[in-house]
Structures are given as C-alpha cells and as structure tokens.
Please model this.
Amino acid sequence: MEIPNLLADITDWIWVLIPLAPFMVGGIAILVKHQQRMAEIVHGVHGHHVANQDVAGMQEQINQLRQQLAQVTLALDDIKRVEPAQEVRERITEVQS
Model:
C-alpha cells in the first residue's frame, strides 16, 4: 500500500520538476563539459610525459645504433686494410714458387 502513496507524492511534485528540467539538462551539460576538459588536461599532461619518455628512449636507441655503426665501420676498414696485405703476400709467395 505504500507504492500508491509514493506515486501520489511524486505526482504532487512533478509540476515543480517540469519547469526546472531545462536548467537540470543545462547543468548536466556544463558538468559533462567540465569533466571532459579536466580529462583532457590530465591526460594531456600525462600524455606529454609519456611522449617525452618515448622520445628519450628512442634517442638512446639511436645513440646505441650510431655506436654500433661506428664499430662496424672501423671493423670493415680494418678488414679492407688487412686483405690487400694478404693478397700481396700471396702474390709474392706465388712469384717466389
């Protein structure tokens, strides 16, 4: 029997809610927009921090690759210097034989 009384109470106050509906919708819209801006601020700052970490990591990888490239280049230069000397020695031994 309480349910009809609750329904009767709501119908008594519904006339107040109808004129206030546009203000409630407007307030909800303002609140949603505010929450969206706050989320952009929070994620924007966090996103920049993550991006900075990614850039730093990539720079470190590039530096490592440059070092490896320099080492490989030096090793190839050493090989090129050694090979002609070996070829000359082989020719000399062939001529002497």
User: Anything to note?
Assistant: The CA atoms of residues 78 and 85 lie 11 Å apart.
